[in-house]
Structures are given as C-alpha cells and as structure tokens.
Amino acid sequence: MKSRKLSRADVQEHLRTTRNWGRWGDDDEVGTPNLITPAKRLEAARLVQSGQVISLSRPWPTEPGPGNAHPAQHFMQRMDKPGGAGLAEDFIGAEFHGKTVTHIDALSHAWDSDGMWNGRSPDEEITFSGAKWGGVQAWRDGLVTRGVLLDVPRHRGQAYVAIDRPVHGWELEEIALAQGTPLTPGDGVVVYSGREAWDREHDAWAGLAERPGLDASCLWFLREHDCALIVWDMTDRMPNGYDLPFGNHAAIFAYGLALVDMALLEPLAEACRAAGRWEFMLVISPLPINGGTGSPVNPLAIL
Amino acid sequence: MKSRKLSRADVQEHLRTTRNWGRWGDDDEVGTPNLITPAKRLEAARLVQSGQVISLSRPWPTEPGPGNAHPAQHFMQRMDKPGGAGLAEDFIGAEFHGKTVTHIDALSHAWDSDGMWNGRSPDEEITFSGAKWGGVQAWRDGLVTRGVLLDVPRHRGQAYVAIDRPVHGWELEEIALAQGTPLTPGDGVVVYSGREAWDREHDAWAGLAERPGLDASCLWFLREHDCALIVWDMTDRMPNGYDLPFGNHAAIFAYGLALVDMALLEPLAEACRAAGRWEFMLVISPLPINGGTGSPVNPLAIL
Amino acid sequence: MKSRKLSRADVQEHLRTTRNWGRWGDDDEVGTPNLITPAKRLEAARLVQSGQVISLSRPWPTEPGPGNAHPAQHFMQRMDKPGGAGLAEDFIGAEFHGKTVTHIDALSHAWDSDGMWNGRSPDEEITFSGAKWGGVQAWRDGLVTRGVLLDVPRHRGQAYVAIDRPVHGWELEEIALAQGTPLTPGDGVVVYSGREAWDREHDAWAGLAERPGLDASCLWFLREHDCALIVWDMTDRMPNGYDLPFGNHAAIFAYGLALVDMALLEPLAEACRAAGRWEFMLVISPLPINGGTGSPVNPLAIL
Amino acid sequence: MKSRKLSRADVQEHLRTTRNWGRWGDDDEVGTPNLITPAKRLEAARLVQSGQVISLSRPWPTEPGPGNAHPAQHFMQRMDKPGGAGLAEDFIGAEFHGKTVTHIDALSHAWDSDGMWNGRSPDEEITFSGAKWGGVQAWRDGLVTRGVLLDVPRHRGQAYVAIDRPVHGWELEEIALAQGTPLTPGDGVVVYSGREAWDREHDAWAGLAERPGLDASCLWFLREHDCALIVWDMTDRMPNGYDLPFGNHAAIFAYGLALVDMALLEPLAEACRAAGRWEFMLVISPLPINGGTGSPVNPLAIL
Questions:
Q1: Are D188 and D146 contacting, i.e. CB atoms less than 8 angstroms apart?
Q2: Residue B1 — very low, low, confident or very high, per pLDDT cuts 50/70/90?
Q3: Distance from A107 to chain D by nearest Cα, in Å?
Q4: Is there a contact between A302 and B77 if contact means CB atoms under 8 Å apart?
Q5: Inter-chain contacts counted by CB atoms under 8 A, chains A and B
Q6: C-beta atoms surrounding A26 within 10 Å
Q7: Which of A217, B38, B160, D301 could cysteine-pair with B197, CB 3.0–4.6 Å?
Q8: CA distances to C155, D15, D219 from D11, in Å
C-alpha cells in the first residue's frame, strides 16, 4: 500500500471488504496457516544455512511487575525415594494472554460486531468448557514456514520505535524490499520494534497505557502479502488511533491470522544483523489445548 | 550391545562407568543436547522431503481418568468490549509430569544416591523457587535434530509391546539397522511401542501399576549411540525389573539425556510406514521456565 | 410428613407448590438463611454449655483418590530474610464442589428447567466472571444458628446408612422427636449417616457410583420445619430413585436452602453421644467470593 | 507497659526473655490459642446480646491492583443436565499471604535466627509437601473467644492512623481502659486503625512501601495480657523502625500468637460505636490444610 492518512472508516471498510471469510470453506478453523503448504515447509527447511537456532520467547514471567498483573505460576515439588534417589516436579499455571508471556492467539481469541473468524457468533462458540470454534488445537501440527525479520530500528537508524512514530504498513513494505526479502504467501512475518532497547531507557513497555507499536495500516500489508502469521515484540500501538476495538489484532477474526504476541526479538535481530540475512526457518508449536484461545509458545528461528 | 541377561549390579555399574559427568565441563547444564551441533541441525533440515508435519503431543488432558490423578486445568474467560467486540482468554495450569501431558524432563527432574546430573546435590539445588541446576531454560533454544523413529510393533509384527516382552536395547539396535537408519551422535531417537493400540484392547496404559515398556538395557543403546534425546510413548516398563529407583530415566542424571515422556506416536508411525522413511527433522521447543523441572511440549516431526 | 411411597411426579409437584420464591421479595439472594434472625443467633449462643468446639470439616484433600478427581492444590514457598529470619507461604487452589472438600453450596450452584432460586435464568446470571445472582457473598456475614444433630446410625442401631435403606424425611422427624430436639424455623439441621464407618468397611463412599444417602422425601422435612441450612456427610443417595436431575439438592433453587456438603460428622456424633445433647451453636463462615457458587468452609459446632 | 523509647536491642531482648517456648510443652503446635479454654468459649458465647453478626473479611480479591501482586483466582464452570437443569461450579486459588486476602497466619509462617515457634528449625520443618511443624490444622477446631475491639481512630479523634504516629502498646492499654474493656487471658484483640478511611484519602494502603500501622511496642501489650490472637486491618508499620526482620509478626514465633492479617474492620467499628459496646463473641474458622502456613478466613464478630 501507499503511504496515506487513514480514517476509522477506511480501516473498517478494509476489514470488511478484504476479509478471508469463506476462502477455505465456511467450516475452516485454520485461517491463514492454510497458506503454509507442504511445499512452503520444504522451502522453509531449505533456508537453514548455519544451523544456528534462536528462541523468540521471553522467560516464564513469575515476578509481578508492570504489565504483569497476573504473574505466571511456578511451584516446586520434591519427592524422595528410598536410598537417596528422588524426583523434582513442578506446577505451572498462567493466564498467558497479557503483556509478558510469549504466546500465540488462536482464532477464538477476538471478534468484533460482525463476529468471530468466518462469521461465527461468540455467544454460540465461547463456552465454559472452551471455544467450540477456532480453538488452538486447529494448529496442533505446528506452524512451520519461512520467517522474515523486518528490522524496524535498523531501517530507521534508531534503537526502538517511539510513541510518536508508529510502524506503518508501507514502512514494512520498504523494509522488506530494502532487506531483499520480499514476502511471499504463507510467510511468517517477524516485526522487530526494539522493545528491550525501549525498556532500557524508559518505563517498561509492558506497563504503559500509551505505548509505541504498529499502526493498523499494517493490516493492508499483512493481507496483501497473504502472511500466514505475525510475530512481534511491541504489538499494536496504544491507543490504536482509530477508536476501534482492535488495531492489527483485527486480523485474527478478519483474515484468520495467527498472531504471536510478546516475543523476544532482540537476540534474533542481532543474529540476523551479524549474518546479513533476514530469512530463516520459523517453527511455532502450540500446546494442543482443545478449545483453547491460544497457548504459550517458544518460537524458534533456525538460520 | 549384545542380548544378555542383566542384573541390578550390571545396570548400576554401567551407569557409573559410562556416565557423562564432566564431559562438557563441570558446570554444564545442557547434557547430551550438546551433541546437537549447528551442523547436526543443518543435517536435520536437509532431511525434510515432503514438508509433511506431524504433532507428537497428546491433547491437553483436562479430564480426570486412569493415570490422570492431577488433571490439567483449563478455565475460560470472556471480556466484552463496547459495540459488540470482545475477547476470550483462558487460564491453563498443569502438574505436567505424570502419565498424560506430553512433556520434556529437564536435568533437574531426577537423581539417585550419587546425585543429580554432573554430580550436583539435590539438597543444594532443588529450592522452593526452582531448580538452581539443570533447569529447563538450559534448552531454551530448543532441540532441533535428526529424528529416527524405531517402530517396535512393526518390527515384531504385533500391534503393541506387551507386558511380558519389554523392549531391549539390542532390539532397538536391530530395528535401526533393519530400517536402514543407523543412529549417529546427537540424534533424537523416537521409540514407538503402540500405546494407542494397547489402549484399544486393554485398560488404559496410563492407569496401570504393571505396564509394558522399555527395559533398562536401552541405557546401553542410548549411551553407545550418543543419543541427544529420546521421545517415547510407553516409557519405562513397570516394575523396572531391577529393583532400581529408575530404569531408563536414569539417563537423565547419568548421561544428561533429554527425555520426552507421554508422546503420541501412532500418527507418526503411520506416516513413516506410508512414506517408507524413518528419519525426519525433529523440533522440540520447551517453555523457558527458569528453574523448571521440565515443560509441556508439542514436538514436531517434519518429514 | 407421613411415611409413604413417592413418585417422580410427587417430588416435582412438591417442589413447585412449596417453593419459597418471592417469600422474601423477588430480589432476595439470601434464601432460607433469612430465617436466621438476630434472636435466633442469640438463642444459638445460649445453647453453649461446655464450651467444647468441634470442626465439621474434612482435611484439605490434596491426595488424588476415589471421588477426588480434581485434588485440592497446596504448594509451598519459602523466603529467607537476611540474618536467618524467614517466611513460609503457600498457594492453595480447589475445584471445591465434589466429594472431598467440605464446602457450602451457594444459591447460584444449581437449577432445573424452572430456573434458579427465585426464578432467575442461568443463561442470564451465570457469567464467566461469576454468578450475578445468588453468589456466596450473600452469606458473607456467616450462618450462625441453632444446630441440631440427627444421628441416624444411633437411631437405627447400625454403624452407617446402607445403600438399600436410604434416609427418609419421616425418619428424620422420628429422630428429632426421639432425641427431644424438635426443629424450629431457622435451624441448621445436621444429618449424620456414618460415612467414616462406611468407609472402614467398604470402598470409599466418595468414589461410588451407587451410594447410600438421603432420599428426596427429606425435602418435605426441610420445608415443613423451615430449616435454614443442612449439613450432611453422605448427601443425596445415588441414583436418587426418581430419575430427577437433583434429589435434596433441589432445595437450593426451590427453597433457597444453604447446603453444606461433605462434612465430617463422626467427631460431632461422638461428642453428642457422650454429652447426651443434640443441639449446639453452629457457625459457618463462607469466604466472601463475589459471584462464587459456594466456598470451602470449616463449620464449627460449639457445645 | 509504660510509654518509652525503645531500641532494637530492647525489642530483641523482650522477645527472648518473654517468649512462650515450652510453656505448653516442647511439642506444642497450638501456641497462645491454648489460652482459649472451654470456659473462655462459654464466656464468649455469653457476650452475645443482640445477635448481630458482622464479617471481618475483605472480598476475595481477584482484581490486580496496588498491593495485590498475585490476585486471587476465581474461574467459573457450567454443566448442563438433560431437560434444562444444570450446575455452576468454580475454581478458586490464592497465594493468600499478602495485602488483600483476609487470612490467618499459622505458627509455621515466620521465624527468626533463633528458630520457629518452640525453637524448631525451618530447615527441618518447612518441606515441599507442607510444614511439618505449626501447620494451620493445629487450629482446625477454630478460634472461638472473647473479642475486644480497640478503636484507635475513635480514641484519637481522627479518621485513621497516620504514618508519623504509629500505634504503641501503651496506647492500646489506654484504649482498653478508656473503653471499659480491660483484656483478660485468651482474648482476641481486634485493633482497628482506619484502613478504609486512609484509602479514601490516600493511595491504597496495600500498595505502600512506607505505611502506617502498629509499632513493635505492641508486643509488650500482647504478651502481658496473654492475648490468644490479634486481628488487625493495618498490621505492622513499614518500615518497622527497628531494622528488625519482623515487628509484631515476631509474636508468631515468640509467643505462638495467632494473627489475622488484612481484616476489614470498619463495619465492626461502626457497629460497636453504635452499640456503645466493644466486646463480642469472635469466631475464626481456618480451613484445615495439613501443613499449611495459614488459611483464608472470614472472621465473624457476634454482638
């Protein structure tokens, strides 16, 4: 898309006219990951050159703090056996949607007044025993595809994305071209905004009511390139600027897009800069929670 | 190893004389996954031929039942936004060690009277706030390697491993050779014993006090081939037959072996039989829980 | 009531014709505990003679076992302070409805096709963030009243209630009279059926699909005497014998009755037998969980 | 005690010289609640005059906020039965020590360099499966005694205790005498400091690093009067002013005192002022968690 000033109505109209409802059948619960074909996975595997692997996950966040209103739980147990042997076990628990656990959003996670992904009704589908539609188990065989890092701070010559300069779709386009990594259907786009660098200089991004991030104009980019998924460290800018319930998170119900929130991308950005490469094999493996609205994940980039 | 009758003393002596303590330094918390070099990962990626991907994880087990004394938790939440938009979120929790959650054991999970991996003391290392030694975060960059399925039921011409005929190390050796997939250092060995077929004909394997599985003679196999990890559906036979605190789970503290318990392997076995191939790219991505004794995982086999 | 053979239609008609809907106003969420007036509490306090106090709660059931499909959670934490001081803390969690945690049922806990207490609709009132109607916080000031133990095993000269001889309403009537403790409005009736004695001779009561307990004819007794609450160790017999969704649990939505399930009554029965007294001050103090469907409680009998 | 300036050494010496270790035997895990005799409970019951009952518990705090770093959990479930009947159930969970859940501290909760209650060692007693010493189940039969409200704001003619004027032991003495309610052994002292009034005018007390409360001089008061327990809304002032690990919380391990933190006392204070009475029957009923370091409670004052 070209750079231009968007209105609330522009975004709403775009979502309605370009949404993928029915594209893979009315009963499809997979969404854009349908674009990850076996051939695409094979292409992804062929991208591995050095065998270096990098985690895109933040540590399990048990410490309360800004943006961590519901800390993840981790409790230890120890069981001794006769003769000095023994076992240590633990309990983990999390309300993983939030600002601190790296997690994937399932298609059941969000909706607007037109409904959930493929037009389903949340009143019908969201039940006390799990989502009957768009549960994360639809992606139980993982998301394995070509990953492309779009390094916004490097492109801007700045350490991080600032509040007054959100990331726009046309800038992602520029970066992809400048890096020599144009996107192809089924790709996993990884948008690095410099969250750790921000945190070193400011109050923690996770705790901010007003915070830097991506503008809803990125919806055009995600849709035009038929991205299968997005991984990002800063997510939507807040407020989103259009008085809409969702910014780019609207891609969940409009496109059926898989969305990995709260990733840790600085190590990947450093590795990509060092290698002078911006594409890699990306592997995301959600826990198969029937009716789940998402899952904690530890995405891996294999260079 | 050759087929022979083993005694308790044989197993104990083997563990003490062949253990990997100090092999990667006294301060190493990674263990056999050290054998997964960048070159090994590259080799694994080169194994991808069809791009088919298969989950090796059982569903998140929220239903109580045989072998599921502490069911995994899954609670839903729904938050409505003005104008008909909304969000669904959930809480998940699990004491994941057990018989029903597919999970990886960290090196902090088990020890005998000689100590934990690399000789550390559980009294020093197992604390209320997590394991100070051998926590699962040591594998935060994932385990990406060549996977080799050893299909015991196919080799035996039976549907599943029975109680009176445990799997021995020499049989794994035979199978690997018969399949044309000899093991090389750093491999992830995936031992299929037919758990689902067993469950269709008997009381659920998970709930049995006496149950079929692998004999401790497999320790020789794992050590001789320098396996980086094992994924299995049936785990150790019970009782282990040697009056030892652990059967093959002793590989955790003796070799530093990564061990994925309670995998779902029938779909992979079917795919391998259909493809006539027994090797693939294996990707396991634990949640980076600092001081964790393991993690739920959804291992992926990419063929 | 007189002893007679009841039919399904009898129970249904009784519930509809005698229910307390509207008795304390259409917006009342308190139910029969409205019958516990300040004067009633004063009367209860005057019953204290010896000052002996007895807990009616079973231990916090963290061990899985028959009838304990979702064990209560208890995890320890330890925090050391400089100079050798320190703190121990813990996490507790429970799906407390079930067969093992002593708990009170709030009026939001159960309904039939006519609706919840006072005719409200569960579709309107049961939300993801709690019950909007009949939450346990309606009883936040506790239930303090006269308690009367009805000792069925003593009356029968047997150790426990057996499967083929459920407790009927007319038998409770006989026992109350034989003990010299006729019931008065607002009383808390405590029905002892000998659960511990049963457990010593049979498979644990909690794990049984068919189990001894109270017949739905006790509904007449509870209603005629305007009981404010019932505390019992065996609850409804299973199956209830009338092919109804609920036996005496129907008192929750029909009468607005407070119901304390899974109490431990053997110690109280022994104390009452020793003292030759069957009435006492009863204090039940639910946690004020807004919108909760009940609460774990430790009821106290003060003799 | 007389009003005087205390030093760190004064407090330490007082704790060591007046502690109750051995007073009820070396194996006693009950502590000062031993002072609540049957006669004391009878005396408490005789205090009931109006039959008014008041909860001293704050609501179950599921909302994150200042001082609520680990919000209590409350998740709903709904199960429909054939024919329109159904059940609602819930899960509750809490790390209840903290600033928002009204809870009782067991004798296993705190220690200093001299050890736990009765001189036991935390290294021996605090285990992964619970405290072996001083678990809250020691109080399973509840704490039923005479309660005396000491209304500090009323005595001072101010709405709440301020940071620069902590509550001292000699002031509690004055208040008790001024109110005409001298303390007797086994009493439950209820110290009202006006927390809600503070919260209406300041940042929430729960979230403050420096906050008003009771000075360690109250230890003298608690010990001299042989109080069985204390219930308070503000707890120890912070910092405690003596560079000690604990202020009045030291009474846990020194005296074996039962301590109810984070109570809601404004309603009780209003009722006492209205009635012109400051004593009542106090009933506290902890959940019998074996090895627990405390329990959420809903204390009841019966006037």
A1: yes
A2: low
A3: 22
A4: no
A5: 264
A6: 10
A7: B160
A8: 59, 6, 8
Q: With the CA atoms of D226, D228, D232 and D234 taken in that order, what torsion angle do they form, in degrees rounded to the nearest 10?
A: 60
- Cα separation, B80 vs A75, in Å, equals 32
Q: SS3 breakdown of chain B: % helix, strand, coil, rounded to 5? A: 30, 25, 45
pLDDT > 80? residue C22: yes
Average pLDDT of the segment spanning C189-194: 98
Residues 29-88 of C with CB under 8 A from D: 37-42, 45-46, 48-55, 57-60, 62, 73-74, 76-78, 81-88
- Residue identified by tokens 């305007």 is C226
Q: CB distance B78–A126 less than 8 Å?
A: yes
The rounded distance, in Å, linking the Cα atoms of D1 and A44 is 78
A202 vs A196: CA distance, rounded Å: 10
Going by pLDDT thresholds of 50, 70 and 90, the confidence category of residue D47 is very high
- CA-to-CA distance for B123 and A302, rounded, in angstroms? 37
Interface touch B91/D73, C-beta < 8 Å:
yes
Burial (Cβ within 10 Å: 0-12, 13-18, ≥19) of residue A67: middle
pLDDT of residue B2: 75
pLDDT at B269: 98
pLDDT tens-digit map of A196-222: 999 999 999 999 999 999 999 999 999
- B203's tokens: 């009381």
* C216-241 residue pLDDT tens: 999 999 999 999 999 999 999 999 99
Can you list the positions of beta strands (E) in A82-228? 86-94, 103-105, 110-111, 126-127, 130-131, 143-151, 188-192
The answer to whether A12 contacts chain B (CB < 8 Å) is: no
Q: CA angle, corner C188, sides to C185 and C194, nearest 5? A: 135
* pLDDT tens figures, C143-175: 999 999 999 999 999 999 999 999 999 999 999
Cα C236 from Cα C259, distance rounded (Å): 11
Bridge partner list, D145: D282
